[in-house]
Amino acid sequence: MRERCQVSGFRCQGGADADRKLVLASGSARRRKILAELGVEFAVEVPDVEEVCLAADPRATVCENARRKADWATGCWPDAAVVAADTVIDFRGRAVNKPGSLDDARAMFRAFSGAAHDVLTGVALRAPGGRPEIHLATSTVHFRDLTDGDIEAYFARVDPLDKAGAYDIDREPELIIASFSGSRTNIMGLPRGIVRAWLEKREIGAAG
Questions:
Q1: With 60 as the cut, is the pLDDT of residue 18 above it?
Q2: Which residues does the annotation mark as catalytic?
Q3: I need a surface site. Which of 24, 72, 107, 156 has the fewest CB within 10 A?
Q4: Residue ranges of the domains in the chain?
């Protein structure tokens, strides 16, 4: 069953950056940071798409949503290369997205406490005039055993409401995370290695 997820509500931006060769189809500050660290210039387009939530198929969810975001950005920027991504938590075979409230976030942390989960990011990379290349990155995060006090202490420092799984590995991770394996930038929302390799293959910008 396909459920509706939150829709961004933005329109095509374009404007002064209309000649930009690379577009990031995301409003995420973390994804902007990761892409900027690759040394490329890019414009940002926040997609206005209806995302899917396939609760029993997290992998299909992120790949389909990344493709939809890339398609939207291509419609706005037909002559530019596009990078789009979508991230969810795969917890015991079920998709966990962003919490709708602090109570939702608390429930997520109580479920994650002392357990491992996978962070999945679907990445859609589209060269001008081409079809999107869809990639899937997986990292595993093991949470510490958390008390309610630990959870409240983390939320006092980090806003959980705009993040898949209600946390940001780039902020105060020692409070909640025991260990992780795989790409750290994937856990942040954009696997740098996948994007870097594609940019270099396509000779886009100065990624290195």
A1: no
A2: 86
A3: 156
A4: 3-202
